[in-house]
């Protein structure tokens, strides 16, 4: 209790603690980003084997070594060297090891410490901006999940239901119990409007072009934003995500020569727009209303 009271009364200690916690969680987020799609693929193969009544394949999959967010222990993908505790300190270990495996000297991607730093900085920024309270606590967890969703969608063009659906329910529960961001009525309408708006856009685009413009995971993610921040937040979030997505897409085609037929995941832009909304949404709306009227 004394520690909690101290953190609640000392903003510097609170921000520093949250920063360190964010770095530690960021290391775990790297694990989730890599392992969750593999776990989903394994579960999908099990379902196919069960559906096809392929007992041999099903048993073979069931008897594979345990693979989840806790097991097996982290290893170097190149030499299978088991990562020791001192080699797993967020950011610091990567610097000490000079971005190389201690055993085989294979380069370690800068992506891992980058995600850890993003998690730490974003967590600390949220603690600084909102201060001690339910807003900061819930948004820090919210942003951790957005980091995971952004990277998985970027890698696999996939937004897992195991994250998007709980996000919707947590948003609704927050509005029911505490209402830190919006009322319960606005949250419920936002969850419905978020899903249905992109669902209608998806089918309109598909009927007109015969192509799929986005995935169903985008509907659920947008629904989650509506549940968290209310239906009033949705127009600005979708506008910001569309603008950024269009600019990035054009630049990737013009500068990197990316094939226009290759789909670009929309989830990262939705997540980025939600982040902008949390910190600057009110100011943007006030500026727009002031400029327009």
Automatic annotation (TrEMBL):
Presence of the UniProt keyword Ribosomal protein in the record: no
Subcellular location: Cell inner membrane; Cell membrane
Domain Prepilin type IV endopeptidase peptidase positions: 142-250
Domain Prepilin peptidase A24 N-terminal, residue spans: 20-130
Recorded topology in the membrane: Multi-pass membrane protein
InterPro entries named in the record: Peptidase_A24A_bac (IPR014032), Prepilin_IV_endopep_pep (IPR000045), Prepilin_pept_A24_N (IPR010627), Prepilin_peptidase/N-MTase (IPR050882)
Residue ranges crossing the lipid bilayer per the database entry: 12-36, 136-154, 163-181, 187-205, 225-256, 262-280
EC number in record: 2.1.1.-, 3.4.23.43
GO molecular function, one term: hydrolase activity
Catalytic activity entry: Typically cleaves a -Gly-|-Phe- bond to release an N-terminal, basic peptide of 5-8 residues from type IV prepilin, and then N-methylates the new N-terminal amino group, the methyl donor being S-adenosyl-L-methionine
Swiss-Prot/TrEMBL keywords: Cell inner membrane, Cell membrane, Hydrolase, Membrane, Methyltransferase, Multifunctional enzyme, Protease, Transferase, Transmembrane, Transmembrane helix
Domain of life of the organism encoding this protein: Bacteria
Keyword field contains Cell membrane: yes
Pfam families assigned: A24_N_bact, Peptidase_A24
Functional note: Plays an essential role in type IV pili and type II pseudopili formation by proteolytically removing the leader sequence from substrate proteins and subsequently monomethylating the alpha-amino group of the newly exposed N-terminal phenylalanine.
PANTHER family: PREPILIN LEADER PEPTIDASE_N-METHYLTRANSFERASE-RELATED, TYPE 4 PREPILIN-LIKE PROTEINS LEADER PEPTIDE-PROCESSING ENZYME
Family that this chain belongs to: Belongs to the peptidase A24 family.
Protein name: Prepilin leader peptidase/N-methyltransferase
């Amino acid at each position: 209790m004394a520690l909690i009271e101290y953190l609640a009364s000392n903003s510097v200690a609170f921000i520093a603690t949250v920063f360190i916690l964010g770095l530690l969680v960021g290391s775990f987020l790297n694990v989730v980003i890599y392992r969750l799609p593999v776990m989903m693929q394994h579960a999908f193969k099990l379902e196919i084997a069960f559906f096809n009544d392929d007992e041999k394949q099903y048993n073979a999959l069931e008897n594979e070594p345990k693979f989840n967010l806790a097991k097996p222990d982290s290893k170097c993908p190149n030499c299978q060297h088991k990562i020791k505790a001192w080699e797993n300190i967020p950011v610091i270990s990567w610097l000490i090891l000079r971005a190389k495996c201690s055993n085989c000297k294979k380069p370690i991607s800068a992506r891992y410490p980058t995600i850890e730093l993003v998690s730490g900085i974003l967590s600390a920024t949220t603690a600084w901006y909102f201060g001690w309270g339910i807003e900061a606590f819930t948004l820090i967890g919210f942003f951790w999940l957005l980091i995971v969703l952004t990277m998985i969608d970027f890698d696999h063009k996939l937004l897992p239901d195991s994250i998007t659906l709980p996000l919707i329910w947590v948003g609704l529960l927050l509005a029911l119990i505490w209402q830190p961001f919006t009322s319960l009525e606005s949250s419920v309408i936002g969850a419905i409007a978020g899903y249905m708006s992109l669902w209608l856009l998806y089918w309109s685009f598909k009927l007109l072009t015969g192509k799929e413009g986005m995935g169903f995971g985008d509907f659920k993610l947008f629904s989650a934003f509506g549940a968290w921040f209310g239906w009033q937040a949705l127009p600005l979030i979708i506008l910001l995500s569309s603008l950024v997505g269009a600019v990035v897409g054009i630049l990737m085609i013009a500068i990197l020569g990316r094939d226009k037929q290759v789909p670009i995941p929309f989830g990262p832009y939705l997540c980025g727009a939600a982040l902008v909304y949390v910190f600057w949404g009110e100011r943007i709306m006030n500026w727009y209303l002031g400029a327009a009227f």
